[in-house]
Amino acid sequence: MSRPPTLELPEGARAYRLATSRGDFAVLDAGTAVLGTALLVPGFTGSKEDFIALLEPLALAGYRVVAVDGRGQHETGGPAEESAYAQAELAADVVAQTETLGGTGPVHVLGHSLGGLIVRAAAIDAAPPWESLTIMSSGPAAIDAEQQARTRMLVEALPAMGMEAVWQAMRDMDAENADAPDVPPAVAEFLYRRWMGNVPEQLIATGRQLIAEPDRVAELAAVPIRTLVLSGDVDYAWPPEWLDDMALRLGARRVVIKGAEHSPNVEQPEATAEALIDFWSPKGE
User: Fold this and answer.
1) What are the residue boundaries of the AB hydrolase-1 domain, all occurrences included (predicted)?
2) pTM surpassing 0.85?
3) Contacts of 145 (CB under 8 A, 6+ apart)
4) What CA–CA distance (Å, rounded) separates 148 from 272?
C-alpha cells in the first residue's frame, strides 16, 4: 500500500470529478499542457494521492498532470458487482479518460503496479493514440508467489470479515512484522479513510487479477508505442530482474530508481519525476 508523504496539494492543483463517456472519476489535476498531458493510474489499494509528490515537478516541466481514482477506488465509487471490475472494463475506463483529456497535445500514460496491468491491457486491446506508456513497478505477468499468497488471503477474507475487520488485521500483521513505519496522523487517517472508501468487490476482482495475470509482453511489444519500464531497486511484488527482462522483450527504456521499492513515486519522487520528464521530452525518443 503506497503511503503519500503529504496530503497537501501544490499551488494551482485542484481536486474534482472528471466527466467521461464511462462515468465520472475523482482526479487531482495540476499544471498546463504546454508539452502535453500525463495521466497517472494508481495500483491495488492505491489512489490518486499516491502521485501528489509528482504533481509539482511534472507541472513545472510543462505538463498537465491528472492522477485518477479508478472505478471502485477511494473517491470514485462503483457498483457492488465484481464483473464491473474486470480488467477489460478498467482498461476501457482509462481509454475514456484519455479521450476526455485529448486535444491538449500528446498524452503520456503511466500505470503503477496493478495500474500497469490495466494500462497495458488498454494499449493492447484498444491501441489508443498515446504518445508514450510508462509501466511503473508492474511486471510481465502475475505477482511473485509470496505476494500471491498474501493477496489470496485478502481476497478470501474480505467477504467473510468485511472491510473494517480486514483493515485491523492488516495493521496487526504489519505491527507483528515490524513493517509499520512512523506515519503522520493525518496520513494515517487518510489511509484508513481511503481503505474504507474502496468498493470490496473491486478489491476482490483486482486482487484475483494480480494472482492470475498472464504474460502479455509479446502482445504489448507488437503495439507501436514508446515504452518506459521504471521501478525501484527493490520490489517484492515483481522483482527488478523480472522487469529487466520485460524491458528487453519490449525493446523499452529501463530506469531503476535507487533507494526506492515498490512505489518510487512516493519513496523517491524527485528522481522519478526526472526520469519521466527525460523520457517524455523529444530527446527521450
Assistant:
1) 39-275
2) yes
3) none
4) 27
265 in any annotated domain: yes
- In three-state secondary structure terms, 177 is coil
Q: Which residues pair with 138 in a beta bridge?
A: none
What is the tally of helices (H) and strands (E) in the chain? 11, 8
List pLDDT tens digits, range 33-59: 999 999 999 999 999 999 999 999 999
**Domains: count for the chain:** 1
Band (pLDDT 50/70/90 cuts) for residue 182 is confident
Amino acid (1-letter code) at residue 111: G
CA distances from 174 to 6, 170, 178, 193, 219 (A): 21, 6, 6, 18, 37
Cell numbers at 94, concatenated? 482509462
Give the span between the Cα atoms of 107 and 87, in whole angstroms.
Answer: 21
Residue 8 counted as domain residue: no
What is the C-alpha to C-alpha distance for residues 98 and 107, in angstroms, rounded to an integer? 7
Amino acid present at 103: G
Match 505477482 to its residue by C-alpha cell: 143
The partner residues of 132 in beta bridges, in order of sequence, read 108, 226
Q: Given CA atoms 66, 154, 157, 87 in this order, what sign does their dihedral have? A: positive
Domain that holds residue 235: 14-284
